[in-house]
């Protein structure tokens, strides 16, 4: 296990973590059964790829922002904040999604990364955020509950948690 000498931080995507990002994302895709075809073009023009991840992007029919959880040259994971919800995202997806690279899992990084993501969501003006979770995903459920997630209901296959970000209500 690598010992980190700096505290990981949620940052805008940056080319400084090229090697660990590509290694980590390949491992994550393989672990999750996702296509790895996008990694070739991303590695050929990493600066261009990073530029395409910065700022407000659009997917799932909504604007969203991407953050990387980084310590020095180490990329640990990704968190996205969707600025709006659609009926589909209300049921599955919510405002925030994340993953941690397999090599960095089970060390508390997702719990701390979501805490940093909630601080960013508060900074963006959200008073509350929705997170959804597959009932079989015990790790993600624990990450959400550790960050104040209140189980709202189950809609379709997903558990739905709201997290209150309004400091006036605490
Ligand atoms: C879910 C995920 C982000 C968790 O990342 P992580 O960095 O390992 O999480 P943490 O180390 O903060 O662990 C949080 C809790 O889950 C537990 N946990 C972690 N992996 C686990 C596993 N595979 N099975 C059961 N519990 C697990 C930890 O022990 C910890 O429990 P504790 O709070 O009681 O100590 C990571 O497994 C992942 O990226 N999975 C694939 C993508 C995904 O599922 N994303 C979430 C849906 S959007």
From TrEMBL:
Lineage top rank: taxon = Bacteria
Which intervals hold domain N-acetyltransferase? 17-170
Q: Which CDD domains match?
A: NAT_SF (cd04301)
UniProt xrefs under InterPro entries: Acyl_CoA_acyltransferase, GNAT_dom
Q: Cross-referenced PANTHER family, in alphabetical order?
A: ACETYLTRANSFERASE
Protein name according to UniProt: N-acetyltransferase domain-containing protein
Which taxonomic lineage does the organism of this UniProt entry have? Bacteria, Bacillati, Actinomycetota, Actinomycetes, Micromonosporales
